[in-house]
C-alpha cells in the first residue's frame, strides 16, 4: 500500500472506531436522563445532567495533561485505553449504583480528554495541507453514523412505551457496551508510520543507548507538550477560535442531552414520546453525516474557504432554535417523571421536532468540520496541544451547559446559544481571513476548507 493509501486507511479506521464507540456513548447520553428518571423511585439517586456536567468538567481539566500523556504512550495506545473506560461507563447502566455512576463519570472525563487529543494527533499525522479538509470530512461523517445505529435501535425497541422497564434497560446497555468494545479493538488496526533509519541505527550499541534514553526522551516530550499547550492557549488565533469552540460545546450539550429530554417530556406526543428520542437522534445523525460529506469530502470543489460553511451553520441553527422555541414547552428540560402538559406557541408537532433535530445536526457538522480543518492547517506541527485546547474549551462549556440545564427554562438555554453562536461566527471569520492571507503570501491556492 502506498504511503497516501496507508494514511487514508488510517483515517477510515479512525472514523469507524469512533463510530462504534460513540454509537454506544451518544445513544447512552440521549437516553440517560430518561432512564434515570425512571430509576429515581428506587435506591438510585443520580442525575444524567449532573453526570454529564462532571464528565465535561473533568474532561476540560484533563486536557491540561492529555498532550503529555499522548506524547508518552503514543496516540494509538492512548485511544485503546480510553475506549475501555468509555465501555465501563456505559456498563454502569446495566446495574446502576449512584457511587459507581459518578465515579465512572470522573474516569470517562479523563479518558475523553486523552481520546480526543490522540484523535487530533492521529488525524493531523495522516493529513497534509491539501488533504486535511477531506480527511476531516471523512472522519466526521463516519463518526456521525454513530447517531444513526444506536438511536434506530432505541426507536424500534421503545416504540409505544411510556415506561422503561429493568429488562429494557439492561438489554439496551449490554448491547451498547459490546458495541463500544468493538470500536476499542478496531484501534489496533491503525498502521504506524514507517520510521526512516540511517544505516547502522539498529546495531546493538544504539539499541542499548536508545533504551537508556527512552524514558528521559518521553518525559522531555511530555514537558514540551505541556509547555506548548500553555503557549498556544494565549495566541490570538486560538483565543478567537475559543469563542467558536465554546459555541460547539453549548450545542453539543443541547442536542446530545437536553433536546432528547425535552422530546421525551412532552405528554402531547402520546405513547411515542420515548421512542421519538431515538428518532430525533437519527435525524441529528443524518444532518451530521450530510454536512460531513458535503463540506468535507467535496471540499476541493470549493474556492471560497471555510467562512461560507460556518455562515450556513449559524443560519441553520438560528432557524432550528426559532422553531424549537415555538414548538417545545418552556419547562420541558426540567420536567418531572410525569412529563409536561404545557404548550408553547403552537401545538407540539412531531414533524417540526424531527426537522429541528436534522437542522441541529447539519449546523453542528458545519462548525466542527471547519474547526477540525482550520486547527489542522494552522497547527500542523503542534496538533496534540492544539486539539487539547479545542477539547478543553469545548468540554468546559459543555460542563457549564449541563449544569445550568438542571435549572434553566428552555427559552434561556436557547438565548445563550444564540448570543455565543453570533460572536463565535464573527471570531471564526477573523481567523479564516488571516489564514487566507497567509496562503496568499505563500503563493498557495485558497481552495481547501
From TrEMBL:
Lipid bilayer topology: Multi-pass membrane protein
Keyword RNA-binding: no
Main location: membrane
SUPFAM superfamilies linked: MFS general substrate transporter (SSF103473)
Tagged with keyword Magnesium: no
Listed PROSITE patterns: PROKAR_LIPOPROTEIN
Cell compartments where the protein resides: Membrane
Record-stated family: Belongs to the unc-93 family.
Protein name: UNC93-like protein MFSD11
Organism: Vidua chalybeata
Lineage: Eukaryota, Metazoa, Chordata, Craniata, Vertebrata
Gene designation: Mfsd11
